[in-house]
């Protein structure tokens, strides 16, 4: 895992890098300003990456994948020092990819069917998503996850940097509820921020891809094979 | 879970309705300061948003007027409104003997009540430079700081370090441990009041390190906010609290 231990070899060093969001920084306007994305991605997210790399230089977690780091670092609720930076790097990357310019609205096909099955209707899901986001006290995230045991979609909130990965579930989409994510654009109006996200920014394409991959691990029932 | 969520949405809607009534701090005090007739009839005390003793812009350039106004009129006012509403609901649940409802309300009460308690202390911790803000502590508190931390600078450094390292939202405090008769630096998460860290702790100074307390002005650079807030720190108030607690 660690590079060459012998003093004669040169040490191989690898580190995490910051991935660019799949759209221009101003593409999410007017629902998320360029200023916010520049700061959020360029400063907050970058700081988590830099902080993680600095810790990994002298950590037993050097060489782990991010997912492994998150699951092991969570340490059953007693997180190790590297956990916070690792989880926030992952959470924020997942967040940028959960959004898409001029998106939102409602999903189609299999995803819509699964949502209707697990929430009753898309409207119910939307309301529960907004409601959960508003009832989170303090900093954290709101997620759409695929629960492994219950084999259904569910809306969950996590505090600070806690990730559903660490809790054993499959994340499908998330929204950053730390104040830095919305304060410049919405001040204290978290409701407007969450509503705009679900109505205009959430990328149902990405959700579909993640659901498809998730179904490889969670049996959601017999597929509907269309008759020719 | 879903039913509780709708109740909470109603609570938020009411808080927002109350907020739209106010546009200036005087109006805010008037709107939320008086006892509401309905609750007075049932005998539940309601809490009021305290006034600041200085203008919103008086702490500049350490803290911007925009932040002070939002922080006081929106954030603190919301804690007060939600706290009052939660206490009403608690009263009803207790009267009905609904034990699980009583327990379920605890986190909302702790959050909003804590928010009210903490911010009420915070406004008193700050003072414009022209009225003595930033002047270092003297006499009993000053000596105690030298004894427990080595020097005033060491205390500032410790508070700044702990405040910057706090993950998520919370507060950093200069506390007096009444029993041990020593000063301590403590942090609390979210809106937990200082007593959650120790029943004998008396808050002398608290610094809000929630992002709403500094983001508009300092963006992600929390350390700059922390180093600047000392310029408007009201050590006179802290000294008074200390002397009363150690009398």
TrEMBL record, chain A:
Residues 108-208 form the Manganese/iron superoxide dismutase C-terminal domain. Its cofactor is Fe cation. Keywords: Chloroplast, Iron, Metal-binding, Oxidoreductase, Plastid, Transit peptide. The keyword Oxidoreductase applies. It comes from the Eukaryota. Residues 16-99 form the Manganese/iron superoxide dismutase N-terminal domain. The keyword GTP-binding does not apply. It is found in: Plastid, Chloroplast. It catalyses: 2 superoxide + 2 H(+) = H2O2 + O2. It comes from Zizania palustris. Belongs to the iron/manganese superoxide dismutase family. This is Superoxide dismutase. Destroys radicals which are normally produced within the cells and which are toxic to biological systems. Its main location: plastid. GO terms for cellular component: chloroplast nucleoid. Its EC number is 1.15.1.1. GO terms for molecular function: metal ion binding; superoxide dismutase activity.
Automatic annotation (TrEMBL), chain B:
GO terms for cellular component: mitochondrial matrix. Its cofactor is Mn(2+). It is found in: Mitochondrion matrix. The keyword Chloroplast does not apply. It comes from the Eukaryota. This is Superoxide dismutase. It comes from Zizania palustris. The keyword Cell inner membrane does not apply. GO terms for molecular function: manganese ion binding; superoxide dismutase activity. Residues 1-17 form the signal peptide. Homotetramer. PANTHER family: SUPEROXIDE DISMUTASE 2 (PTHR11404), SUPEROXIDE DISMUTASE [MN], MITOCHONDRIAL (PTHR11404:SF6). Residues 46-126 form the Manganese/iron superoxide dismutase N-terminal domain. Destroys superoxide anion radicals which are normally produced within the cells and which are toxic to biological systems. Residues 138-238 form the Manganese/iron superoxide dismutase C-terminal domain. Keywords: Manganese, Metal-binding, Mitochondrion, Oxidoreductase, Signal, Transit peptide. Coiled coil: none annotated. Belongs to the iron/manganese superoxide dismutase family. Its EC number is 1.15.1.1. It catalyses: 2 superoxide + 2 H(+) = H2O2 + O2.
């Amino acid at each position: 895992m660690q590079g060459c231990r012998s003093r004669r070899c040169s040490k191989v060093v690898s580190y995490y890098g910051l991935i660019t969001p799949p759209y221009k920084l101003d593409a999410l306007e007017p629902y998320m300003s360029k200023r916010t994305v520049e700061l959020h991605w360029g400063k907050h997210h970058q700081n988590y990456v830099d902080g993680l790399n600095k810790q990994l230089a002298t950590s037993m977690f050097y060489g782990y994948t991010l997912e492994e780091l998150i699951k092991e670092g969570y340490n059953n609720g007693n997180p190790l020092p590297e956990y916070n930076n690792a989880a926030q790097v992952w959470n924020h990357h997942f967040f940028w990819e959960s959004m898409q310019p001029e998106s939102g609205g409602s999903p189609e096909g299999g995803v819509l069917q699964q949502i209707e099955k697990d929430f009753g209707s898309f409207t119910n899901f939307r309301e529960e998503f907004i409601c959960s986001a508003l009832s989170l006290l303090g900093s954290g995230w709101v997620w759409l996850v695929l629960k492994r045991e219950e084999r259904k979609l569910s809306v969950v909130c996590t505090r600070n940097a806690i990730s559903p990965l660490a809790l054993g579930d499959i994340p499908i989409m998330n929204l950053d509820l730390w104040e830095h994510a919305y304060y410049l654009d919405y001040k204290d109006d978290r409701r407007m921020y969450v509503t705009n996200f679900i109505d205009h920014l959430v990328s149902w394409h990405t959700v579909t891809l993640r659901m498809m991959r998730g179904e490889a691990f969670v049996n959601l029932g017999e597929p509907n094979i269309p008759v020719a | 879970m879903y039913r509780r969520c709708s109740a909470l949405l109603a609570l938020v809607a009411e808080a927002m309705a109350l907020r739209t009534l106010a546009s200036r701090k005087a109006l805010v005090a008037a709107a939320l300061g008086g006892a509401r007739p309905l609750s007075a009839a049932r005998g539940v005390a309601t809490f009021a948003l305290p006034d600041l003793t200085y203008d919103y812009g008086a702490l500049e350039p350490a803290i911007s007027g925009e932040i002070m106004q939002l922080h006081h009129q929106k954030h603190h006012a919301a804690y007060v409104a939600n706290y009052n509403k939660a206490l009403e609901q608690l009263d009803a649940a207790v009267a009905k003997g609904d034990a699980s409802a009583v327990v379920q309300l605890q986190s909302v009460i702790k959050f909003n009540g804590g928010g009210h308690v903490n911010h009420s202390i915070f406004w008193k911790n700050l003072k414009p430079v022209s009225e003595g803000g930033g002047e270092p502590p003297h006499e009993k508190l000053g000596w105690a700081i030298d004894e427990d931390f080595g020097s005033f600078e060491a205390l500032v450094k410790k508070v700044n370090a702990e405040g910057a390292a706090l993950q998520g939202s919370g507060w950093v405090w200069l506390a007096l441990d009444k029993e041990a008769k020593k000063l301590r630096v403590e942090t609390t998460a979210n809106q937990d009041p200082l007593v959650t860290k120790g029943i004998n702790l008396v808050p002398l100074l608290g610094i809000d390190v929630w992002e709403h307390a500094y983001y508009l002005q300092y963006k992600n650079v929390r350390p700059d906010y922390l180093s600047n807030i000392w310029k408007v720190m009201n050590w006179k108030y802290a000294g008074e609290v200390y002397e009363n607690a150690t009398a």
